[in-house]
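We both want to read discrete structure tokens more fluently, so let's practise on a single case. Would you supply a protein for us yourself, any chain you care to pick? Would you write everything just below, so we can both look at the same thing?
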Amino acid sequence: MSAYSFSAFRIAAAVLFLGVAPTLVAPALAQETKSKIKGLELSNDAPIQIESDKLEIKDPESKAIFTGNVKVVQGTTTLQAGSMVVFYKKGGGGAISSGNADIDRIEVKDKVFLQSGTQQATADIGVFNMTAQTLVLKGKQVVLSEGKNVFTGCQLDVQMNTGEAQLQACGGRVQIQLDPKSQKTN
């Protein structure tokens, strides 16, 4: 395993609901890539815009279901998926209507796409657990990219409160394509 590392990806979705967008720093090829991520404080005051073909609010079940071309935007961060279910903590206020509900977790599926500036991630499904402060992206192929730098695996786990991230290969190997021209010089 090489000691070569560089700033490769800001986990954009975290900013949507946590106000944090960490940076993944990964070593070269391995069956599993584990690294620390550095947090970047972003504004929690930026408005969140959500669009979908349909919204179903189920207050008794403490959830809101967005289906069809779901798009969530906050500042320079965009999340897109076929569907998104937002689960609220019991007694945390009315679902979407009050705007102050306490979110437990968010599940997205069907062509998940995250973008923040020039950085992108794609996956089949994603789970943002606000209570545990974790983000998990899974799929046949989870791809993280910034320009020509590309990380490919099948599962990305991010522990938001410790700044650790792990990209797994799920039986294969993690693949990394690095563009030497993208490395910042000091």
Observations:
- DSSP finds one helix and 13 strands in the chain.
- The CA atoms of residues 86 and 106 lie 5 Å apart.
